[in-house]
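HUMAN: Please help interpret these tokens:
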Amino acid sequence: MKEFISRAKYLWDKSIKLNKDKKILDCASGNGSQTSQHWLEWGVSSDNITAVDVNQECLGTLSDLGVKTVCMDLEQESLSDRLGDEKYDVIVCSETLEHLQKETADNLLIGFLKALNVGGSLVITYPAKAGKHKFKYGHCRQPNNTEIIEVVGECFENTESSRWFVTERHPNEPACFLMFTGKKND
């Protein structure tokens, strides 16, 4: 569990803590063990979180905690089709882009822009090195900061990037972190 707490804590310190009274979209949330469950423990209201994932069973955990959940396949559906005109102040996309083909990932990033309020923040994490994955939706490519910034970077006032925590479970697999803040006008 230490690995997951480290990721949740890093995201908390970098973005969520400052926005805990804002509307948050947790994209590809799973059961929220790496994200939303901790944010709830740390004071974010369940009314402020929407969790999106392909696995309905995983979403059930968050639904039981009062979080609005949306089950969707990011490769087959667009965010706007499922979320409508819903807008968020913070969107977190943690460990997702490496599971999507580049065109699908780019479309998801554009969907984030449409769903993000002016002034909002977009937080993206991905493994520094994509590896084999035991689940149905395995790693199919290695994202990089440059390609992500090319799609959404000009739409924000600020961009912060870093490599961050290394876990006991995966000591040689740091993750990358990108945070875009101050979304400009639509």
Summary: The first strand starts at residue 24 and ends at 27. The longest helix spans residues 2-16. The mean pLDDT is 82. The domain at 2-183 is CATH 3.40.50.150 (Rossmann fold).
